[in-house]
Amino acid sequence: MTLRAVDLRCEHLAEPRGLNDGQPRFSWALEGEGRDRRQTGYRIVVGADAAAVAAGRGALWDSGRVASSETLLIPYAGERLASDQCVHWSVQVWDESAAASPMSETARLWTGLAASDWKAKWITRYWVHPDGLQPPANTPYDNPWRARPADYYRHEFDVAQRPVRATLYVTALGVYEVRVNGRRVGDEHLAPGWTDYHTRVEYQLHDVTDLVHGGSNVLAAIVGEGWYCGRIGMTSQKAGAHYGGRPVLLAQLHLEFADGTVTVAATDERWKTSHEAIVYSDLLMGEKYDARLEQSGWDLPGFDDGAWQRVELWDAVPSAPRLDASRLQPIRKLHELQARYLKTLGSGEMVFDVGQNIAGHVGLTVRARSGDVFTLRHVEMLTPEGEPYTDNLGEAAQKDIYIANGIGVEVYEPRFTYHGFRFVAIAGPAGCGPDDIGVVGVAVHSDTPVAGDFECGNAMVNQLFSNIVWSQRDNFMSVPTDCPQRNERLGWLADVQVFLRTAGYNMDVAAFITKWMVDVADTATEGGFADVAPSKPVFATLPVPPRGAPGWGDAAIIVPWLIYLRYGDREILERHYASLVRWMDLIERHNPDYLRKNYIHRNYGDWLSIGPATPRAVVNTAYWGHVADLMTRIAGVLGRRTDRARFEATFRAIRQAFQSAFVDAEGRISGDTQTAYLLALDFGLVEGELADKAARHLVRTIDEAGGRLQTGFLGVKHLCPVLSEIGAGKHAYALLLEDTYPSWGFSIRHGATTIWERWDGWTQERGFQSPKMNSFNHYAYGSVGEWLFSRVAGIDCCEEQPGFRKVLMRPLFHPDLGWCRASYRSHTGKISSHWTFRGDEIDWTVRIPANCTADVVIPAGYKVRRVDDASAVRPSRFELGSGKYTLTLCLDFTGH
Ligand code: BGC
Fold it and tell me: Is the pTM of this model over 0.90?
């Protein structure tokens, strides 16, 4: 069987809708039966004609056969790609015996619109908040937080004949839904997503060929405030308008006819606008929808829009943001969970449980009279008395209101808000009972493709894995947020860097994080990176702005490095390199003695740790050492030899200073905390004998804490990996399997379906933690997920051949788990590992993708007895080529 190229990706996406660079990069994975399969050559074919490309003819580019084993991120080198083009591509590969594959299935990509091809004008609606509390007649304004009614836009235009191709380019400052002739375009939710709107906004591209016809057509849109001018971040309820005062829309429809001519319909002063049924919408507060205000046919040709206002043109001040093609998968509605009725409260509200803490909204089905009001309050938890627990939501109201039209069965889902919740309390009209309404939980998140799967013989660990995945889903909402429920929901940098290795196993986050790194770069000033990306303009005016804290600002270096390791993408390092060097310069300039005590801004330390606190100077200096070490490697990858030598020297100087200031001859580190030892060991700040001593102290601190963890956001990620590295794998498993406070298992024993922000978010003794900061859906402590894949299952990447060209297979078997089965779809192909205890023996089946090799490390105490059915002697570390193997292992009493 020949090798086959599958899973075609361009710029980390299955189908990019617009390019921001004229030289897109192509990648594929390989499949092929048997063992030791290798690619010895490839050929990429690109053209506008799908059938020709499928047949191996590329009018734009035919790379010809290139002798190479590369499959990742190969740059386009054909004819210049024009704006507004859809092109197809396909790959042919040659295997180890020079046998050629057929052409792969074709994939598409859109080039998008060049800046100079935008003709559309930004449009907006004049609407002022009425003064006082009484809204003028017919004005649907009635909320204390002064959220605007959504803006409805329409434009009718004639087309002489049916186009052969219709492509819509659209975006908003706000959040929008777009429609052509009454039909919703695409399935994106909360588009265009969040960026620093002062700098850039992403546009979306849709093929609407099937929706446009000859004659009269209508292009229409609904626009809400969203991140642009609604309430975001740690905001008070009335403080919206962080980027601008009112939402604006930009749309451009390209119609190509059979004779090759192209006409454009775009937003301009001729468009009309009105408000309609969305009385207001806000990401944090909720949405109110009055179905009686629907204007039937508003988005169809022939609608009488005489009563609608003319739009205003938006004079961008000082200038309009840059229009970038979308770099990541859109937010979509991805899971539906049937809710279970729990009880009716004294207030008359009916409480439903969707069974899982999600981010999203409720799909409500009612049969009601015109004017009947349904109010939905969303919470993560119930109080011990079974009441909705709202204290931890801060100022986020998370409340939706639906007013029925009385037309029979009505289905309502809010458009421009999302809530973090498991329980919903619904107040309906008098006489409405739980059987009269349908309630489903709709989980929404950025549609990053599922990459990993993990299961083992321990139910609690499986629930932990599920909780980690759900916290990732619930917080990957265009940007990686800290939490989905309270008035925060910000892209805190440290949370991302500690969780990124885990996130990358669960889902393909290459595109998502590449885009977010652009947000991070957009926060950079002369003073370094912000702690939150996208940054919020008002932050800049705070006395101590959240900017450049150790572990937070440093994420700007850690994150691209982790993306490079996982996906082999060197360009992300190159693109951000200059600003990373600047960041290193700044820290060094302020800390000439190589202890990081200055320029530490908000200095959060090992955030939310419990037990003894790790001295901040230890944490900060350790992190500086870590990023100096990473910069050494990054400069090495990029071939910058002088920088490499410089950062290596910086790292040595920091290590020296760290040891002299914080480590005694017995390897005891200032603070004597788990996190102090974890960071020093993992970041290479203690070596040789000193490292052995520090390792013993680490184990001691865990023993002294009764075998419990005490780590905060920064320390927790290193716990199980470092314990495994120093030969204390048993301690790592003990922490994993613990279910008394504090542990991951503790939250699970108390019903958690997501990862809590705090170890003590709720305890028997104290009940709920301080409501000021007590999210039940924060992924940082879920960073143990990377260890489930990398050490429990034993699937990891290697620095020497990044992108999983070489797989490090290094499991740690444990009888209490019994078995473990995991798979990971890397960009090079699918890897799997499955081990089972059978009496004294372990069967371990691994699959290594074609064109890849595995560096297999047998854990101490075991040896290989058989490979497949034949007895075999293997050293404790050996290499395997691609294919499926079953190794049988037994205890090794000789010990290695
Ligand atoms: C956020 C954290 C964040 C921290 C910074 C909190 O409010 O929820 O996730 O990293 O602030 O200290």
Answer: yes
